[in-house]
Design goal:
The complex is a heterodimer. Chain A is α/β, with parallel strands linked by helices. Chain A has helices at 22-40, 56-65, 69-86, 100-115, 169-178, 187-197, 227-232, 234-237, 247-252, 265-278, 310-317, 319-329, 340-370, 389-403, 411-417; strands spanning 6-14, 44-51, 93-96, 119-129, 134-136, 154-163, 183-184, 204-205, 207-208, 215-216, 224-225, 257-261, 287-290, 293-295, 298-299, 336-337. In chain A, a hairpin with a 2-residue loop joins β14 (293-295) and β15. Chain B is built from five helices and ten strands, in the order ααααβββαβββββββ. In chain B, 26% of the residues are buried. The chains are: A alpha/beta, B alpha+beta. At the A-B interface, α1, β15, α12, α13 and α14 of A face α1, α2 and α3 of B.
Chain lengths: 424, 212
């Protein structure tokens, strides 16, 4: 038996500062749908998801709740796993940035980049609020004072580690230009080049001394690894990169698709490729930035309070109906609006009327006319003929599926499937 | 013909499986497809998989129809009950920073479609039986028009009269509570709409002046 081709797909690791909303479900459902389509069509699939658990916001949330940060995230992560189970999101691995395997790997990577000179120690100029013991950048200040307590701040310098983004800028511009499929949809390519790369990259601050809830830099432990190296490397750490057993890494890397929200395309197409290149590793084949699920014009967001609870929707309408709606309603890559009305209308028109009636009426007619048999006397399996309406529609439909194979079974595929039900 | 219908149902069930993992088995059960080989991607490459003579079983509706009006009413009631519950809780002490996320870029031509003007409020009254709505009569140069706005929790009709406000003038008219509203007053609002403020002009400008 010949070996199956591999397919490695990832979602972002979500930030468990609060329960997830339907926007996260959208991303995970899309990734799960692609993974299932690839499995169906004969690929050896590895589907990774997870959670990005460090940072000040979680530290504070935990403090407010009177628990340790680890207890706080453990609770939220349990809820996230329940949600994926409810929504039939079947991942192969769930990486948490508090996993020991991840922590060790982040420290190894940080040290390697430091040893080879791509990370260096310097000073980060900013503003310090003594009572709060916090550093702030110029932009974070509120009327020139501490954004937390409103008291005056002092100009100060914090020792930090920096990653040499600037050194690799020309290489990345060239890479993106010669790999037009790397950033999808293509409009995001121009955005990255014109807004960030061509104006020039600055070296990136990759550690903080003010951050306690995070991974310590093992050779200089008063520094904590900041989100960039911590979060982005999850995609290789989960596969055991650099560990004793890196068989999954060797089998599945590079990723075929990183599916991400459009707001984090920048980190995945600028910082992450440069990090990989500096480590001497191949780049993911594609970063796909999907649109936002908006409610009344704004992105759904935990801090805005306009969220829709996917658990409730699934319990009320079934997970298949919610998954169908998410994949069908939104043109993949663009924003789409969520409303209860749109969801109910989709269920009624597509699922109850089209699909439901095709099945129930066909079966009912056969029960009455043919005594429960698909075909008896006088009703035979039709010879496969290209001009038969059913056969023709099926062939077209399959072709559409293959044409949109990059988007594996999402909105356009479903759109293509539906006329099939109107063939009589 | 009946055979074609069943075969189409089988193929649709295979094709939707990545998106809807639970529904295909329910369809196969009803149309009498048992053989796993008829549930694969390979199997839909040829038409005519359903075995003639296989037994169908009418089952329950795959997706029962939902009464839209009733359902929306129910959801709204639940939402209000949840909101009422939330109001009982004390407001969180630690205000989060306002999150600003830029939307997709638009071109100048897109912006040019929008006509913003200075308007003066001549008259203003509450919309009966609506506690959020005010109906304002505006003077825009040599014309007058009526606009309904959801600002009654923040402004009284008396306060409104005489204000110079910013009007989105060429918004298609919409009926709000039976009143045709010709445009929209621009406001700034925070995320949960607990704070709201009308836009106005910095120095005294004649109503009818265009903004751009």
């Amino acid at each position: 038996m010949s070996e199956k081709p591999k397919f490695y797909i990832t979602t972002p690791i979500y930030y468990p500062s609060d329960n997830l909303h339907i926007g996260h479900s959208y991303c995970s459902t899309a990734a799960d749908t692609m993974a299932r389509f690839k499995k169906q069509t004969g690929y050896d699939v590895f589907f990774l998801t997870g959670t990005d658990e460090h940072g000040q916001k979680i530290e504070r949330k935990a403090e407010a709740a009177g628990v340790t940060p680890q207890e706080y995230v453990d609770h939220i992560v349990a809820g996230i796993k329940d949600l994926w189970k409810l929504m039939d999101v079947e991942y192969d691995d769930f990486i948490r940035t508090t996993d020991e395997r991840h922590v060790k790997s982040v420290q190894r990577i940080f040290r390697k980049l430091y040893d080879q000179g791509d990370i260096y120690k310097s000073e980060y100029e900013g503003w310090y609020c003594t009572p709060c013991e916090s550093f702030w950048t110029e932009l974070q200040l509120k009327d020139g004072c501490c954004p937390d307590c409103g008291r005056p701040v002092e100009k100060t310098r914090e020792e930090s580690y920096f990653f040499r983004l600037s050194k690799y800028q020309d290489w990345l511009i060239d890479y993106i230009k010669t790999h037009p499929d790397f950033i999808q949809p293509p409009t995001r390519t121009a955005e990255m080049l014109n807004n960030f790369l061509i104006p020039g990259l600055q070296d990136l601050c990759v550690s903080r001394t003010s951050l306690k809830w995070g991974i310590p830099v093992d050779f200089d432990p008063k520094h904590t690894v900041y989100v960039w190296v911590d979060a982005l490397t999850n995609y290789i750490n989960a596969l055991g990169y650099g560990s004793e057993d890196d068989s999954l890494y060797r089998k599945y890397w590079p990723a075929d698709i990183h599916l991400v929200g459009k707001e984090i395309v920048r980190f995945h197409t600028i910082i992450w490729p440069i990090m990989l290149h500096a480590l001497g590793l191949p780049l993911p084949k594609q970063v796909f930035g999907h649109g936002w699920l908006v409610m009344g014009g704004g992105k759904m967001s935990k801090s805005k309070g306009n969220v829709v609870d996917p658990v409730k929707l699934c319990e009320r309408y079934s997970s298949d109906a919610v998954r169908y709606f998410l994949m069908r309603e939104m043109p993949f890559g663009s924003d789409g609006e969520f409303s209860n009305e749109a969801l109910i209308n989709r269920i009624n028109s597509d699922l109850a009327n089209d699909l439901g009636n095709l099945v129930s009426r066909s079966v009912a007619m056969i029960e009455v006319l043919r005594r429960h048999r698909a075909a008896t006397v006088g009703l035979h399996r039709p010879r496969p003929r290209g001009d038969r309406p059913g056969a023709r529609a099926v062939a077209e439909c399959r072709k559409e599926h293959e044409r949109f194979a990059v988007l594996h079974g999402t909105q356009r595929n479903l759109e293509a499937d539906w006329p099939l039900q109107q063939v009589h | 013909m009946l055979y074609v219908l069943l075969e189409c149902a089988r193929i649709v069930a295979v094709l939707i499986a990545p998106t809807m993992p639970r529904t295909p088995e329910r369809i196969f059960a009803q149309i009498g497809v048992q053989d796993d080989a008829l549930k694969t991607w390979e199997s839909v490459k040829t038409f005519g998989g359903v075995v003639p003579g296989s037994k169908v079983h009418k089952g329950e509706a795959l997706f029962p129809r939902i009464d839209v009006a009733k359902e929306l009413e129910l959801l709204e009631a639940e939402k209000q009950a949840a909101a009422a519950k939330k109001e009982e809780l004390p407001a969180p002490a630690d205000e989060e920073k306002t999150v600003f996320t830029q939307r997709d870029l638009c071109q100048f031509e897109d912006f040019e479609k929008i006509q913003l003007v200075v308007a003066k409020v001549l008259k203003c009254e509450k919309v009966p039986k609506a506690d959020k709505l005010l109906m304002s009569t505006l003077k825009v140069g040599d014309t007058e028009r009526v606009v309904v706005s959801g600002i009654a929790k923040f402004y009284t009709p008396e306060e409104m009269v005489g204000k110079k406000v910013v009007l989105l003038a060429n918004l298609a008219p919409r009926k709000i509570r039976g009143i045709e509203s010709h445009g929209m007053l621009l406001c700034a609002a925070n995320a949960d709409d607990s704070k709201l403020s009308l836009l106005t002009v910095d120095s005294d400008m004649e109503d009818g002046c265009e903004i751009g």
